Amino acid sequence: MIRRPLAAAALALCGVGAVACGGAEVSDTGAAAPATSSRLGRPAATQDQADAAGTTVPTTRTASSETEALPLTGKVVVIDPGHNGGNFRHTKEINQLVDISNQKKACDTTGTSTNDGYTEAAFTWDVSSRLAKLLKAEGATVKLTRTSSTEWGPCINQRAAIGNKAHADAAISIHGDGAAANLRGFHIIMPKKIGGPVDPVVKDSARLGENVRDAFRSGTGLPYSTYIGKQALNYRSDLGGLNLSTVPKIFIECGNMRNAKDAARFKDPAFRARMARSLAKGLEDYLISAR
């Protein structure tokens, strides 16, 4: 969750409603989103089952394709799994202020959770790990800003620095929101020009955001946010991970973890696998078009 003035987290301790988590989400138009794996080359149902079980389904490639470079060969992607599982044990450290170019903000926050305790830090680590495997399979060099879900940090300025040092072609920070329980849907956060490090990549970040938004909606069927942004696109100038980035970068709030329908998807391993494939598709679309 990214803290913002108008989105207070709802802390009601109610149960999550029963939803068919593995099925296709019905869109606002009433049509079910197709459960496909786009250009990743796997039947979605088979891959959902394999990902939930922790196994691997090999991609089938033709003999001619074996001699060709994978589509993301030479590309560098940095994935930032939001927050960290041990942040709540290190409140002094994460509350220290760091410079984010146009203001100072806390090093990090604990993040949010579903009403029955599935944490944002665990969710972002799971989806990020799945996404990293998919991108590596397509030839990309992938770096994560943290290596576990039990430690604390790194601070938001350090997360940006990891992408900058890697000279990433694209960077994405993965989150789940913690808004009021009656609100739902996903949205993309992109940087604004602030007279700072991010200015030269604002336009490319916007293209990256649109590619990821389109692929995430198509691949998951989840609705656009009902409470922030326009058509799931939101521009901000108060996030250190964006303000300090010198490479194209976006945040995605994959849904509202306090909403029963969204929370059911977050907790379903097969649906988290679908989220990861949709993010991979969006990143691949951006990286290939950027050549």
Question: What does this 3D model show about the protein?
Answer:
- The protein has 291 residues and is α/β, with parallel strands linked by helices.
- Helix content is 33%, strand content 14%.
- It is built from nine helices and eight strands.
- The chain has helices spanning 44-53, 63-66, 91-94, 120-137, 156-165, 202-220, 240-243, 260-266, 269-289, and strands spanning 76-81, 97-99, 104-106, 141-144, 170-177, 187-191, 233-236, 249-256.
- The strands form two sheets. Strands 4-1-5-8-6-7 form a six-stranded mixed sheet, sandwiched between helices. A two-stranded antiparallel sheet has the order 2-3.
- The longest helix is centred in the last third of the chain and has 21 residues, at 269-289.
- The chain is globular, with a radius of gyration of 18 Å.
- The model is unreliable at 3-38, 41-46 and 53-64 (pLDDT under 50).
In which range does the helix fraction lie? 25-40%
Quick one: how many beta strands? 8
Strand order of the largest sheet: 4-1-5-8-6-7
Biggest sheet details: 6 strands, mixed
Radius of gyration: 18 Å
Unreliable stretches covering 5 or more consecutive residues:
3-38, 41-46, 53-64
Termini separation (Å)? 32 Å
SS summary, helix count: 9
What form results from the Cα inertia axes?
globular
Strand content: 5-15%
Task: Determine the mean pLDDT.
Answer: 85
SS-based class: alpha/beta
Write the element-wise H/E pattern from the N-terminal end onward: HHEHEEHEHEEHEHEHH
